[in-house]
Write a structure and sequence with these properties.
alpha/beta, 7-stranded parallel β-sheet, Rossmann fold, 2 domains, 17 helices, about 425 residues, 8-stranded mixed β-sheet
Length: about 425
């Protein structure tokens, strides 16, 4: 066992390795990059800390970067999504790890700092926890960290806020904003994995029921699309008038949260914001309402308000808490209000994460090859985005047309011919 790791039980490694072997066969894009990296070793001599959900797909990304010569340490971005057997398998493969399932808030902070003790040259972040810790508590690492890549919408919002204020001390790649990420990961990945987690957790029917989805970004669109496929009636709550119009034209009901609160059987938050469901909404909900969060942090559903309103609470199923209100109504909260698709499921489908994690690897490679970038948030270059999309098509045996030189010239010009 790697003595510099902090994990639950190394004896679980064999089980974790089987999970990694399973996802590997469904990640052809990452497999192709791994073969390339073994030959070129773009990360040789570089230390990389990865803060993501520690399950098999993430593990294979870490192993791909290791195959490219990188020294890798991993830490969890969410304690409830950590799979201890996968973490053990990573340690068996020579990767440092600081994580275990169900870590307390204090343990989580310790793990983050232990990972940063590794002294990274580059980071891959999910929600901005590494970036935030480096900029607040571990400023001795400023100057050593040369850049990083961010996985989520929530993390990019935080990074852009830092950049606007001139507080960002190294360049970051906005991987979430690449088309090959958000059009697939956020929409199809979130849509499928959220309902997979809810269904396995509750074992209840969706058809004929009303689902309220709070937030109609790409993740919300995916959750709504799958809810429709399951036979639900759908309500969308939004603060963005353009997205609200879009939801209406997609065929969904649109209304304020206070109105929706009394109508829905399921509530799913996907906003990236805090307190979008609070005491005023709980007071209006049906008996048996089910609450789930698909945003990065567990702040979208006010757990404090729900606890204050409840006269009792208990665990009634794995990842399911029952809150009984004074009038006898029961409200059920899934996965402690954390990211439900990972805290109560296995996360996005493997084939979807193949594209997202290929982008992460290519973004990291781009940073290594382009030293001296400004301390701001950069989009993934279009050629890398398109490269991942083409690699995915080729893995499916699909071909597409390409522009002729005359067509490309026409699109680039402005003079009518």
């Amino acid at each position: 066992m790697n003595e510099v790791s902090t994990i639950r039980d190394i004896r679980l490694a064999a089980d974790g390795q089987r999970k990694i072997d399973w996802v590997k066969q469904y990640m052809p894009v990452l497999n192709s990059l791994r073969d390339q990296y073994i030959q070129e070793r773009p990360f040789a001599g570089k230390k990389i800390v990865i803060c993501l959900h520690l399950e098999a797909k993430t593990a294979y990304l870490a192993l791909t970067i290791q195959a490219g010569g990188g020294e890798v340490a991993v830490v969890a971005s969410n304690p409830l999504s950590t799979q201890d057997d996968v973490v053990a398998a990573l340690v068996e493969n020579g990767i440092r790890a600081h994580a275990w399932h169900g870590a307390t808030d204090e343990e989580y902070k310790v793990h983050i700092n232990k990972a940063l003790d590794f002294g990274p040259d580059y980071i891959i972040d999910d929600g901005g926890d590494l970036v935030s810790t480096i900029h607040t508590c571990r400023r001795e690492l400023i100057g050593q960290v040369r850049g990083g890549a961010e996985e989520t919408t929530t993390g990019i919002l935080r990074l852009k806020a830092m950049s606007r204020e001139g507080k960002l001390e190294f360049p970051m790649m906005a991987v979430n904003d690449a088309r090959s990420k958000y059009l697939f990961d956020n929409r199809y990945g979130t849509g499928q994995s959220v309902w997979d987690a809810i269904l396995r957790t509750t074992n209840l029917v969706v058809a004929g029921k009303t689902v309220c989805i709070v937030g109609y970004g790409w993740c919300g669109k995916g959750v709504a699309l799958r809810a429709r496929g399951l036979g639900a009636k759908i309500i969308i709550c939004e603060v963005d008038p353009v997205k609200a119009n879009e939801a209406w034209m997609d065929g969904y009901e649109v209304m304020p949260m206070k109105e929706a609160a009394s109508m829905a059987d399921y509530f799913i938050t996907v906003t990236g914001n805090k307190n979008v469901i609070t005491k005023d909404h709980f007071a209006r909900m049906k008996n048996g309402a089910i609450l789930a969060n698909a945003g990065h942090f567990d702040v979208e559903i006010s757990k404090q308000d729900l606890s204050l309103l409840a006269v009792s609470k208990r665990k009634v199923r794995p990842n399911t808490e029952e809150f009984t209100l004074e009038d006898g109504r029961k409200i059920f909260l899934l996965a402690e209000g954390r990211l439900v698709n990972l805290a109560a499921g296995d996360g996005h489908p493997v084939e979807v994460m193949d594209m997202s994690f290929a982008l992460q690897a290519l973004a990291l490679e781009y940073l290594v090859k382009n030293q001296g970038l400004e301390n701001k948030v950069f989009n993934v270059p279009e050629q890398l985005d398109n490269r991942v999309a083409l690699m995915k098509l080729h893995s499916l045996g699909l071909q597409i047309d390409s522009l002729t030189s005359d067509q490309a010239e026409y699109l680039a010009g402005w003079v009518n011919e």
